[in-house]
Amino acid sequence: MKKLALVLAFAATVVTAGAARAEIGTADITPAATLLLPHFEVDLKNPNGATPTFMVNNASATAVLARVTLWTDEAIPTFSFDIFLTGYDVQQVNLRTLFTSGDLPITADAQQDPADTISPKGPLSQDINFPGATGPCGAVYASPALSQAELRHVRAAHTGKRSAILGGCAGATYGDNVARGYVTVDTVSQCNTLNPSSPGYFAGIATSQNVLWGDYEITDAAQNFQWGGSLVHIESCGPLWVGNGASCPYVPGDYTFYGRLTAFDAADQREPLATTFAARYRIGGIDSPSTDLLVWRDTKLAPTGLSGKHNCNKKPTWFPLAQSDVVAFDERENPSDLCYLTDNVSPPIGGSQTCFPLATQRVSVIGGNPLGFPLDTPFESGWLFLNLNHAVAGDPQPGVAQAWVEIAQDSEGRFAVGAQAIALDNARTANPGGVLLIP
């Protein structure tokens, strides 16, 4: 009887789980049409440096095609490639080997891989043919790799140097030969040469299949660290769904994840992320802890013209990105206003300081980011209130800007852990400027 009760309880749990549905406009980890790796770093001069990898999984029995796009820390796309996934398949992408030797995942659809030796499928999985003349569908990818010209291009673009393919610079210059950026992964209908910033990408290429899920790992042999977490899961809005304060589908003028690339006409139908976050930190104590924030931000401008590739001695028009309010609390709820310089001069010469200036960056809670201002947190531990709303010239979404924040903590030079910050709102329903704790 006990065994029967356990079986029935388990069956009830499975039925309940199968009936559950994710909510649009909520930062939930659920199969989605787009995945986001909000920040990566690859030290090109140190083979033992941090190695970021991420996994792309298919939550459905039906085979799907995923389009992976690399973006610089100035939100400019540099390279895209396709991953074919049989039903319930999983593929790993190693960003270190991509940037150092140009290696790409080896996959192929049913037509190009009839013996299932490249992309095998299990007894519960489907394997189908995808149209298209490039990537894993058009040819068996026995040894997929970037060409030498493409490899030089991505290395230059992601380290703030001039790319011959772009004819200019596309990333911030730190001068340390570390490739930085972020990654998006979309479900698509066919192999293609486009990326989310290309005209027509959301008019027949990208699909609304909420079937992708994934995670990432950062392995640092030199520091003896390994930590990771879930990728950011961004759902596509279906016609019958009702979301968190918004009915689907999205309509022109709504804030969507890829809105900056489509003039906010809602063509992408992807839910936006949050604008305000709560993040735990520890930067002092007997075990010498430290906390970094991995911060992804929306520039709200398409990567064209003065916001696209540029002369290497200049910056995009939006740089640096401002923020609305950053407050540190200690563990007794004492607040401290951060990223803001006060003074007693009349007229005042102080004001907001840009602590998170780029589309993606790693920010030390102690020292800040080299291209921005330090946070100057006066406490050893507590939590941060991060209102990252901002406005740009000609802003189609005045005072509202989506973002994402991850937390990376280490202790005693031996232990490391990663976690997502807590999202406190959603860009779709956020008020301009958001909540200000210390105006």
What does this structure look like?
The protein is mainly β and 439 residues long. The chain has 2 domains: 24-234, no CATH class; 273-423, no CATH class. The protein has 5 helices and 20 strands. It has a 5-stranded antiparallel sheet. A 5-stranded antiparallel sheet has the order 13-12-17-10-20, with no helix packed on it. Strands 5-2-7-8 form a 4-stranded antiparallel sheet. A hairpin with a 5-residue loop joins strand 3 (64-71) and strand 4.
Task: Please sum up the structure shown.
The chain contains five helices and 20 strands. It is mostly beta strands. The longest helix has 18 residues, at 2-19.
Number of strands: 20
Order of helices and strands: HEEEEEHHHEHEEEEEEEEEEEEEE
Q: How many domains in all?
A: 2
Write down the overall mean pLDDT. Answer: 88
Strands across the major sheet, in which order? 4-3-6-1-9
Number of helices: 5
Query: Strand share of the residues?
Result: 25-35%
The best one-word shape is globular
- The biggest beta sheet, please? 5 strands, antiparallel
* Secondary-structure class: mainly beta
Compute the separation of the termini in Å.
62 Å
Rg, rounded, reads: 22 Å
Helix content: 10-25%
* Assembly state (oligomeric): single chain
List the helices and strands and how they pair.
Elements: H1 2-19, E1 34-43, E2 51-58, E3 64-71, E4 77-85, E5 90-94, H2 95-101, H3 135-138, H4 148-157, E6 178-188, H5 201-205, E7 212-220, E8 225-230, E9 232-234, E10 276-282, E11 290-297, E12 325-330, E13 335-338, E14 340-341, E15 351-352, E16 360-364, E17 381-387, E18 403-411, E19 415-420, E20 422-423
Antiparallel strand pairs: 1-6, 1-9, 2-5, 2-7, 3-4, 3-6, 7-8, 10-17, 10-20, 11-16, 11-18, 12-13, 12-17, 14-15, 18-19
